């Protein structure tokens, strides 16, 4: 997993403390995860009594991290060293599959003194 200090990310159209030297273009990272039978059973029981479903929270956190890291990989492949306007999107593909997409604009930046 890439550390943000090593590859700056921003949901804004700029990176505070950096100058954007070049825009490389649109980048994305996608993952699709399926919930396991054990998670579905546990979630079904939790749904009856209410509360947070920790198995799904963990799955979605892992999916988010995976999609962001794939987006960073895409940006590196085209010569960028940062991403601005980073966004996340999620959708259900089927009853037990979830997609998570990270996308943004790959840029080349220089840290300001």
List keywords for this structure.
single chain, alpha+beta, 2 helices
Task: Give a description of the structure.
The protein is an alpha+beta fold. The chain contains two helices and three strands, in the order E-H-H-E-E. The chain has helices at residues 37-49, 54-77, and strands at residues 18-34, 82-94, 97-111. Strands 1-3-2 form a three-stranded antiparallel β-sheet. A hairpin with a 2-residue loop joins strand 2 (82-94) and strand 3.
Write the topology of this structure.
Elements (H helix, E strand, L loop, with lengths): L17 E17 L2 H13 L4 H24 L4 E13 L2 E15 L2
Antiparallel strand pairs: 1-3, 2-3
Oligomer classification: single chain
Distance between the termini: 27 Å
On the 0-100 scale, what is the average pLDDT? Answer: 86
Biggest sheet, in brief? Answer: 3 strands, antiparallel
Query: Which regions have little confidence, pLDDT < 50, spanning 5+ residues?
Result: none
| Net shape | elongated
């Amino acid at each position: 997993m890439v550390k943000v200090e090593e590859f700056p990310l921003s949901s804004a159209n700029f990176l505070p403390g950096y100058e954007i030297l070049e825009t490389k273009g649109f980048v994305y990272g996608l993952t699709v995860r399926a919930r396991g039978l054990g998670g579905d059973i546990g979630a079904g029981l939790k749904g009856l009594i209410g509360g947070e479903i920790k198995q799904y929270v963990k799955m979605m956190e892992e999916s988010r991290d995976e999609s962001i890291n794939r987006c960073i990989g895409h940006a590196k492949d085209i010569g960028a060293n940062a991403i601005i306007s980073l966004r996340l999107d999620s959708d259900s593909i089927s009853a037990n599959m979830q997609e998570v997409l990270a996308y943004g604009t790959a840029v080349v930046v220089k840290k300001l003194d």
